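Narrative summary of target 7.
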Amino acid sequence: MFEDKNINEFDLMMKSILDEGREEVPAGVWERVSEGLDKVAASKRKPAAVIWFRRAGIAAAAAAAAIAVGVVLNHDTEETLLPDTGDSSLVAVVEQETSTEDHAVTVEERAEAVTMLADAAKSSAVRKPVSEIPATAQEFIESQVTDSSAETVTAEPQTKEPDKVEEERIYFPEDWGEEKETYRPSTSIVLSGLAGTNSAQGQNRLSPQKAPVVTPAPDKTGVEETSTKSTYGIPVSAGVGVKIGLSPRWAVGIGAHYTMLSRTFYGKYTKVNPDGTISSPTSSDIRNIQHYVGIPVNAYFNIISQDRVSLYTYGGGSVEKCISDDYNVLSTAISHKEKVDGLQFSANAGIGVEFAIGKNLGIYIDPSLRYYFDNGQPESIRTVQPLMFGFEMGLRVNL
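Modeled conformation, tokenized:
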């Protein structure tokens, strides 16, 4: 009666634990069944008394095992059902021992019971995350299964990563409008040539209504213009400079350039000897060539800046010094030089365009208007026509 009661309670407990589940056949059962069948086949050849004796022994052993398992499972334990959470964590029904003094169950029996329950719970449709298993229960499984060299159940909690939500950017009032452009300062070397106009060519210097002016005898060797007309050559300049970018829109340029001015007129060359006497003057066509060196400074503003073409405006000025003022009497081999004092100041403004012809090379064209101030310089196209149109062209090598 006691055995039936324990067995029924054991069955009810197993049924409640494995509700909606499927129990797996414990490892080694089939080998034991196979051995049993072999023994039954061999027992057919033995006397009936021996067979019945063995059957009784097997029944008694089975009853004893059921009673032992019932005692273990009926002991004060804490049961934990592990429901399915959709992850791949291994689960187990474990029991936490509260006392080891009330019964004498061996470690092997406990390990076997825990292993059977764990195997059965693997297929259960109702599981719990292993993180909810009490720490004492986990320690019990590890200690008992390790000591008995039984099947070890490894449980690793896995949590489902939440979907990544794109970070929402908060715009403050100072962020509104155009996004700030990242600019890296640039430097380029400029090789340029500049040509100006000479629309004053053939212009009369003296009014026809005015009577010729009688000049006194010169006190030093020099050239005197006696005609009313001069022919002016095209001013030509060449230079080198550096253009430095300050921002995506602004840049400054500075450099050095050389300019040659020329004119031809009819005049008289007079030589004064060291003793004060005057040699016979020579009248002839005289060619005057002036050489200037200067420093131009300009500011540039980019209107359009693309990979292949750039459009910009610029303005600035320059200061120049006449380093040579030569007069050549064309009918003779006479050459005369004069010293020039002072500096020539000018201002300019224009618009330019640059085309890229290589990775670091561009060609530019800068038409401009230039005004030359009256600074007491020798007569030239600049003194006759202060406001001039200039056409500059050159190469820029970007560093």
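The chain is about 25% helix and 35% strand.
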